[in-house]
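Students often ask why we bother encoding 3D structure as a string. The short answer is that it lets us treat folding as translation between two languages. Here is a chain of 301 residues written in the first language.
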Amino acid sequence: MSRTTPRILAFGDNVVDCYRDRQRMFPGGNCVNHAVFARRFGATTAYAGAVADDAAGRAIRDALVAEGVETSLLRFLPGQTAYCVIATEGGERVFVGANLGVSIIAPSPADLGWMRTADAVHTGRSSHVDSWLGHFASLTRISYDFATIRDEGRIAAVAPHCHLAGFSGGDLDHAEALALASMTLRHGAEWVVITRGDRGALLAGRHGVHEAPAVPVRPVDTLGAGDTFIARTLVGLLRGEAPGSILGEAAEAAARTCLSPGAFGHGAPMNLDMSTMLTIDDIYASTRPVPGPGADPTAAE
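And here it is in the second language, the structure alphabet:
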């Protein structure tokens, strides 16, 4: 059943994106971005996640409030808010390092309660809650951002829970993108959206594949464009919009995101301790998934 104003909970990761050359930090992270963009597209949204009571955490909270996202589920925990440091080299954005801080959490009873009233929950690979997806799916539809994951075993485990599976496929040619969509549908996803940068995007479902070209712009910053696209796609699907219309609207919205710095604005002076910075490889090697329902919460430590 479609709703004109869908209810969406974004659960999981957050970060402040720190632009070293500008000495500015911008609220972001896949789930924070999704909550903001889906709200801008007319959904009622809430964000469930964790930050610290530091300048970065307060910047994330203040941006969510300013954007009309419900923050009753935002937790303030001892420690440091997650951050990612970005440099510009030869005009290109380069990820220097990051720290996930307090951002990796299990859902609380209150989070699950909000989820029961939602039309969908959005999460993704960066939130490390795959062990909870079966439980989430028993409460509502799931939108999941795989980002650049292509491993079939991982996709086969997650796809059966997905109303919408999203992928970043800027490195894929047309045939490879179609094959990835087909494989994800075969493993149980209802819809698959793959963004391919300036080569456009596709939305695949059980009744066919729809494609749209990218909207040409001179980008200021492409950060958040993919999150914009997935958020607009989910809102459109929940409203029962035609797939072709969804893609066109999503392409326009993603292009607009590229015209300003940060994922969705709200920049602030860079104010954080970068002595804790790790490489991206170190983060992936050291981060443990969140234990599933009924598990010992210390198992991930």
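Translate back mentally: Residues 54 and 81 are 7 Å apart (CA to CA). Keep this in mind for the problem set.
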